[in-house]
Write a structure and sequence with these properties.
It comes from Faecalibacterium prausnitzii. It is built from 1 helix and 7 strands. With 110 residues, it is mainly beta. It has a 6-stranded antiparallel barrel with strand order 1-2-3-7-5-4. The radius of gyration is 15 Å and the shape is globular.
């Protein structure tokens, strides 16, 4: 049976604006259970690097029923911090036989 790990997702909440009217966010950690961590394909790494200049480190499979926002947020697992590249790609829940129906790519973040 496949089983994922717990990761820390840093949810962003808008708390105001700075002097240039750019939003100011506060991050709060939330534990997301049963997330699969996998290696991206060579094609995914190359494509993302050529298009955006980002080097993908891992691909995360998000469990069905998850309602968190995964767009450009920090995540932590394996004792390291990462940032999601874009948002989650979601499949039709009823058409996917396993417990995960979304995937998101992450890059190393320092």
């Amino acid at each position: 049976m496949l089983k994922g790990i717990d990761i820390i997702l840093y949810e962003k909440t808008k708390t105001g604006e700075d002097g240039f009217h750019d939003p100011i966010y506060e991050e709060s950690p939330v534990t997301v259970h049963n997330v699969l961590v996998g290696q991206p394909t060579a094609e995914e790494i190359t494509t993302e690097l050529q298009l955006t200049g980002r080097r993908i480190a891992y691909t995360l499979a998000i469990p069905k029923g998850d309602t968190h926002n995964w767009d450009n947020v920090r995540v932590a697992f394996f004792g390291q911090t990462f940032r999601t590249c874009g948002g989650a790609v979601q499949g039709i829940e009823a058409m996917i036989p396993l417990r995960w129906n979304k995937k998101v790519q992450v890059e190393r973040y320092e």
